[in-house]
C-alpha cells in the first residue's frame, strides 16, 4: 500500500505530535479521571511497529508524569495562596467609571431600547396581553439592534399591576389583559455584549391620560427633571433620593392626597410609602452594577434610602438610572394609615379615589459629566408628547412594522 509521505523524514515531526498528544492525554486524565485513546495509526500513518514502540513509551511517560504530579502535590507545590478579595475594590471601581468606549456601547443599548419602547407605545391596544408588549420589545431589540438578550425580565404591568415593583417574573408572567383606562408601566431594557439599559415608560393604554393619571404622572416627571437638573460631580446620591421624595410629597399635597407641612412629612419618611424603592442605581455590565458601597460608604437605615443600591458621591463617567415613582400599594397605604405619625397627613376620601390606580415610574439612564449629566434615553416623556405620539401610532394603523420599515 502506498504511503503519502516518507516515514523516515517525518519521524521527528511525528514524535513532536505524539508528545503533544501525551500532554493532552495526561491533562485529560488529571482533570476528568478519564483517558483518551488517540487513533495514531489512522491520523498519523504510524506503522504497527511504531505504534507498539509508542505504546510502551506512553506507559512509561504516563507513570513518570503521574509520579511527578503526586510528589509535587505532597510537597505543596499546588497549594497556592489565592486571595479573592484584594483586587475586588479595584475591579469594581473600573466598572463604576466608564471608559469612552463603554459609553458608546451604553449609548447604543439606550438608543435601540428607546426605539423599542416607542414601537411598543405605538402598538399597544386595549384587549392585548401584557406579554405581547414584552414580545414586541424583544423582537425590536433583536431584529433592529442585534440585541438577543434583555438586561432583565421585562416588567409589563398594566392597571393595578403597575404598582408591583418586580412584576413580570415567572410567578406573574405579564399575562393580564390590558384594559381600557389602565396605565401601562413598562420597564424594559435591551442588552448588547453584556452592557445593559434600563428604561421605564408609563402611559395610558388607550392613549389619553385621565386627570388623576396626568396629575400623578406629572408629579413623577417633575421629580425626575428636578433630580436631573441637580446631578453633577460631587453630589451625594442619597440627597437626590431625598430631593425626589420632597417633590413627590409637595405634588401629592397639591393633588390633595396629602395635607400638612412637607418638612414634617419628611421627618416621618412619608415619601417611602409612595416610593419604597431607591431613586436609581449604577448601570453597566450588570443592570444593577457593582461598586455601590465601597469601603467608607455606608448604607442609610431610613425607609426608602436603605433600598438605594449606592450611596456614593457622583463622579464623571458614572452611569446611573434616574427612576422616581409614585405607587399606590395597598399594604403600604394600610400600614401608613395605621401609624398615627403618618396617618395624620392623609386625606382619606381623596386617597380612596387612587386605590387600584397602580403606579407611575419614569426611568431614564444618564452619564455624569464634568459639569452635569448626559441623558442617554430618548422617549416621549411629557403628557403632551406621549399623547401625540400614541395618537400618531394609532392613526397610522401600523402593526409592528420593524421588518417593513427596515426595507426603507
Ligand atoms: Mn432600574
Low-confidence stretches: 1-8, 399-408
Q: Numbering strands along the chain, what is their spatial order in the largest sheet?
A: 2-3-5
Ligands and ions found: manganese (II) ion
Shape summary = elongated
Distance between the termini: 64 Å
Number of beta strands: 10
Structural topology:
Blueprint lengths: L6 H26 L7 H5 L3 H27 L13 H9 L3 H24 L6 H16 L3 E2 L4 E4 L24 E6 L1 E2 L7 E6 L6 H20 L6 H19 L6 H6 L3 H4 L44 E4 L2 E3 L2 H8 L2 H4 L4 H6 L5 E3 L2 E5 L4 E3 L7 H13 L6 H5 L2
Antiparallel strand pairs: 1-4, 2-3, 3-5, 6-9, 7-8, 9-10
Helix pairs in contact: 5-6, 5-14, 7-8
Bound molecules: manganese (II) ion (MN).
Would you kindly provide a written description of the structure presented here, covering whatever features stand out?
InterPro entries: Creatinase/aminopeptidase-like, Pept_M24, Peptidase_M24B_aminopep-P_CS, X-Pro_dipept-like. GO terms for molecular function: metal ion binding; metallopeptidase activity; proline dipeptidase activity. It is built from 15 helices and ten strands. By secondary structure, it is mainly α. Helix 5 crosses helix 14. 47% of the residues lie in helices and 9% in strands. The protein is elongated and about 95 Å long. Strand 9 and strand 10 form a beta hairpin. The chain has a three-stranded antiparallel sheet with strand order 2-3-5. It has a three-stranded antiparallel sheet with strand order 6-9-10, with helices on one face. Strands 1-4 form a two-stranded antiparallel ribbon. The termini are far apart. It binds manganese (II) ion. The site of manganese (II) ion has 5 residues, from loops. Manganese (II) ion (MN) binds next to loops.
Amino acid at each position: 500500500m502506498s504511503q503519502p509521505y516518507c516515514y523516515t523524514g517525518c519521524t521527528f515531526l511525528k514524535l513532536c505530535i505524539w508528545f503533544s498528544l501525551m500532554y493532552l492525554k495526561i491533562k485529560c486524565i488529571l482533570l476528568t479521571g478519564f483517558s483518551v485513546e488517540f487513533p495514531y495509526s489512522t491520523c498519523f500513518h504510524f506503522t504497527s511497529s511504531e505504534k507498539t514502540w509508542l505504546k510502551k513509551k506512553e506507559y512509561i511517560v504516563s507513570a513518570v508524569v503521574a509520579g511527578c504530579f503526586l510528589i509535587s502535590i505532597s510537597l505543596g507545590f499546588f497549594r497556592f495562596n489565592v486571595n479573592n478579595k484584594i483586587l475586588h475594590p479595584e475591579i469594581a471601581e473600573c466598572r463604576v467609571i466608564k471608559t469612552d468606549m463603554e459609553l458608546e456601547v451604553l449609548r447604543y443599548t439606550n438608543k435601540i431600547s428607546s426605539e423599542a419602547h416607542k414601537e411598543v407605545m405605538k402598538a399597544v391596544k386595549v384587549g392585548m396581553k401584557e406579554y405581547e408588549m414584552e414580545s414586541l420589545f424583544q423582537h425590536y431589540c433583536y431584529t433592529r439592534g442585534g440585541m438577543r438578550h434583555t438586561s432583565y425580565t421585562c416588567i409589563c404591568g398594566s392597571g393595578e399591576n403597575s404598582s408591583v415593583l418586580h412584576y413580570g417574573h415567572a410567578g406573574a408572567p405579564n399575562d393580564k389583559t390590558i384594559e381600557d383606562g389602565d396605565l401601562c408601566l413598562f420597564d424594559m431594557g435591551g442588552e448588547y455584549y453584556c452592557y445593559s439599559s434600563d428604561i421605564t415608560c408609563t402611559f395610558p393604554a388607550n392613549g389619553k391620560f385621565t386627570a388623576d393619571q396626568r396629575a400623578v404622572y406629572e408629579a413623577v416627571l417633575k421629580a425626575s427633571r428636578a433630580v436631573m437638573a441637580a446631578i453633577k460631580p460631587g453630589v451625594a446620591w442619597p440627597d437626590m433620593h431625598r430631593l425626589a421624595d420632597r417633590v413627590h410629597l409637595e405634588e401629592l399635597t397639591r393633588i390633595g392626597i396629602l395635607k400638612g407641612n412637607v418638612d414634617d412629612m419628611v421627618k416621618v419618611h412619608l415619601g417611602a410609602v409612595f416610593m419604597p424603592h431607591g431613586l436609581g442605581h449604577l448601570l453597566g455590565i450588570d443592570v444593577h452594577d457593582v461598586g455601590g458601597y465601597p469601603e467608607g460608604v455606608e448604607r442609610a437605615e431610613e425607609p426608602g434610602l436603605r433600598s438605594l443600591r449606592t450611596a456614593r458621591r457622583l463622579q464623571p463617567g458614572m452611569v446611573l438610572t434616574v427612576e422616581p415613582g409614585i405607587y399606590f400599594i395597598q399594604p403600604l397605604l394600610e400600614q401608613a394609615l395605621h401609624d398615627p405619625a403618618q396617618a395624620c397627613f392623609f386625606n382619606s376620601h381623596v386617597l380612596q379615589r387612587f386605590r387600584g390606580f397602580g403606579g407611575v415610574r419614569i426611568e431614564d439612564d444618564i452619564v455624569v459629566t464634568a459639569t452635569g449629566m448626559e441623558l442617554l434615553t430618548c422617549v416621549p416623556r411629557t403628557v403632551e408628547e406621549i399623547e401625540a405620539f400614541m395618537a400618531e401610532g394609532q392613526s397610522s394603523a401600523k402593526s409592528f412594522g420593524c421588518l417593513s420599515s427596515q426595507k426603507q
